[in-house]
């Protein structure tokens, strides 16, 4: 019979995974909605141009992109299995000596959020608040202005990974969608790097 500690450990693992998967699903759903809206906009402009010019898009030599290969099973993160390596798509943080992380625009979402919160003297904010700060200063990632979901996912990942790592906690989550910033931890960690 399993002990309470091992059951708790397994339960925490699956609860964390559920939160991460739900956040990823929300981000993907948001992206699909944005793509559908953009297709509608493009279609309206194309049809107007066809009507005005008398030409048809079907007359043009436009290659259809090949469909993306279908995976048999979703790939699981191998970050735990590869110590010392970053997960794909993540920037090195300024606190870890990331190259060129001298300005806000060179930082990843988490570092930029902590920096802006500290500049504003705010210790707690929602992903929507942080997104408004990013829009206010014109902050962009490699893919443009982040979405609310990408801000939430990044901060939530920092929170959940901070729970597992030995490093000091920089962000906690008192309630879903709310994040608390711990500047003293972030600052001391940055000077130790």
Notable traits:
2 domains, three-stranded antiparallel β-sheet, 3 strands, mainly alpha, 193 residues, 5 helices
Describe the structure.
- By secondary structure, this protein is mainly alpha-helical.
- It folds into two domains: 1-59, no CATH class; 91-193.
- Helices cover 52% and strands 6% of the residues.
- It is built from five helices and three strands.
- It has helices at residues 4-53, 109-120, 127-137, 148-164, 183-192, and strands spanning 124-126, 171-175, 178-181.
- It has a three-stranded antiparallel β-sheet with strand order 1-3-2.
- A hairpin with a 2-residue loop joins strand 2 (171-175) and strand 3.
- Helix 1 (4-53) packs antiparallel against helix 4 (148-164) and helix 3 packs across helix 4 (148-164).
- It is elongated, with a radius of gyration of 21 Å.
- The relative contact order is 0.10.
Approximately what portion of the residues adopt beta-strand conformation? 5-15%
Describe the largest sheet. 3 strands, antiparallel
What is the helix content?
40-55%
Radius of gyration: 21 Å
Name the poorly predicted regions.
77-82, 85-90, 92-101, 188-193
If you average the pLDDT, what whole number results? 76
Oligomer: single chain
Q: What is the distance, rounded to the nearest whole angstrom, between the alpha carbons of the first and last residues?
A: 44 Å
Order of helices and strands: HHEHHEEH
- Strand order, largest beta sheet: 1-3-2
Q: What's the β-strand tally?
A: 3
Q: What best-fitting shape do the alpha-carbon axes yield?
A: elongated
Structure classification = mainly alpha
Q: How many H/I helices?
A: 5
């Amino acid at each position: 019979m399993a002990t309470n500690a091992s059951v708790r450990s397994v339960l925490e693992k699956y609860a964390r995974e559920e939160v991460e998967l739900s956040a990823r699903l929300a981000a993907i759903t948001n992206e699909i909605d944005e793509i559908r809206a953009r297709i509608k906009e493009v279609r309206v402009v194309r049809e107007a141009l066809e009507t005005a010019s008398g030409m048809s898009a079907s007359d043009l030599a436009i290659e259809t992109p090949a469909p993306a290969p279908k995976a048999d099973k979703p790939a699981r993160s191998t970050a735990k299995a590869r110590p010392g390596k970053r997960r794909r798509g993540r920037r090195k943080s300024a606190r870890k000596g990331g190259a060129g992380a001298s300005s806000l625009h060179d930082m990843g979402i988490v570092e930029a959020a902590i920096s802006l919160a500290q500049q504003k003297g705010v210790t707690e904010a929602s992903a929507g608040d942080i997104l408004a700060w990013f829009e206010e200063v014109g902050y962009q990632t490699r893919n443009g202005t982040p979405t609310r979901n990408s801000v939430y996912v990044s901060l939530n990942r920092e929170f959940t990974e901070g729970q597992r790592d030995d490093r000091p906690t920089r962000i906690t989550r008192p309630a879903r969608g709310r994040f608390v910033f711990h500047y003293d931890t972030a600052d001391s960690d940055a000077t130790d790097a």
